[in-house]
């Protein structure tokens, strides 16, 4: 007989036996019911199992961590905008590295930095957080590195 017998706990387990949940409850759901369940769990900011425990016994458990609900459509939109900003910055850098004149791309660079700062602010707002002390990528912060536009 080996030490891996299913009726005995393995000696090399790292988790405490006291904290392991060993009992399961299974329920059958339609696709629509399952999607609605997962949506409600996500909106509550809990994993599906923690949400089920909270609904069934009123407590999600001692180690259940609340997570912010993710709006997949909004995240895809933000990723698309960030990709466009990155592409614009790459084109500006390529232009400058091939001998381009900086003054011709300054408006584009300012626009990219403004878009970046706006998206960063939206992400922080969505997360309900304040900026973390990293220097903001805003036109005011960038003004240290980018000269102001020439007066016409």
Quick check: average pLDDT? 75
Write down the overall geometry: elongated
Which value, in Å, is the CA radius of gyration?
A: 26 Å
Total beta-strand segments: 0
What oligomeric arrangement do these chains adopt? single chain
Give a structural overview.
The protein is mostly helical. It has 5 helices and no strands. It has 2 domains: 25-69, no CATH class; 72-142. It is 53% helix and 0% strand. The N and C termini lie far apart (89 Å). Residues 1-5 and 135-145 have low confidence and may be disordered.
Map the helices and strands.
Layout: H1 31-44, H2 48-57, H3 72-97, H4 102-127, H5 139-142
Helix pairs in contact: 1-2, 3-4
């Amino acid at each position: 007989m080996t030490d891996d017998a299913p009726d005995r706990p393995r000696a090399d387990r790292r988790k405490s036996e006291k904290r392991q949940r060993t009992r399961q409850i299974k329920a059958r759901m339609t696709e629509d019911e399952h999607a609605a369940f997962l949506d409600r769990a996500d909106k509550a900011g809990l994993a599906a199992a923690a949400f089920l425990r909270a609904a069934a016994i009123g407590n999600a458990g001692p180690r259940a961590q609340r997570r912010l609900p993710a709006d997949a459509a909004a995240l895809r939109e933000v990723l698309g905008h960030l990709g466009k900003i990155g592409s614009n910055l790459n084109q500006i850098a390529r232009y400058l590295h091939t001998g381009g004149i900086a003054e011709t791309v300054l408006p584009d660079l300012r626009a990219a930095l403004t878009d970046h700062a706006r998206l960063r602010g939206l992400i922080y707002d969505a997360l309900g957080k304040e900026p973390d002390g990293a220097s903001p990528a805003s036109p005011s912060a960038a003004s240290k590195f980018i000269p102001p536009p020439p007066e016409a």
